[in-house]
Write the structure tokens for this entry.
Amino acid sequence: MTRIKTVYDHIRSNNIKTAILVICFPLIFIALIFLFTWIVVPADQALQTAINVAIPTFIACAVWLVISWAFGDSMMLNSAHAHEIFDTDSENREIFHAVENVAMAAGLPRPRVYIIDDDSMNAFATGRSPRDASVALTRGIIKKLNKLELEGVIAHEMAHIGNRDIRLDMLLITGVGVSVFAADMILRLAMFGGGGNNEDNKNTTGAVLLMVWLAFTVFNVLITPILRMAISRNREYAADATGAQITRNPGALASALRKITTDARVECLDKVKSMSAVCIANPGGPREFTSSLMATHPPVEKRIARLESMAGNK
């Protein structure tokens, strides 16, 4: 007899998959540099080149991560034109207390609560840690979902906070930004032959730099989107499962997702592509088939099916 998967099984499975995918990032990056430079130089020199490129790249990522860590949450909230609400505001007191109650059920500190003045339905969480996290909700999602559905959405966002997904998102976005900048710098160096002392050294150095740039390009254009997509999808599944655990009502979140995906577009986020991964549903417009393949969110039908299976529905 096949054992029915519980919420804890889904959470554990997704956490393991995410850890494996995160480990793949630096390993694939180093392997690509080694393999591409091996085409033009011996293996030992290719390995040394991979190490020499990887170390400063990782240091640059660490520096930029500190900057993102300090200002990333405020930048995201500003991009969404979100404004904070308080329990002293009679108009928003009910939603403020709803977030407070779900946070208590999740065993987490109450996050700051923000409203996005948009009639569409979407939400996201941000912050460096559970103690300084924020949850942002659109006016549309507050108006169009019933109480249980809205609690399911808030629980989903609290799950992202509790699962430290915000930290992971910052790490991924930072790594991508640094690698794109590094690729541009390496191409500029390759165009000048790397500044060797003689013609042979110049040609060899130029060829090595060109191969390193090619490795960066393959990593940025092909590998990174695939890994980010896989990680983000796993984190969405995990947040759905954890959110269902918090409210003990996976059916309410499933119902909310059905409604949200009919109108999830947040116009002010159209040009902020990095925000798509942190929202409960893609805040952009309808996707073409090709972009759907690389989407940061799993198909909503699969998310709903998983939630309904947790509720014991067929």
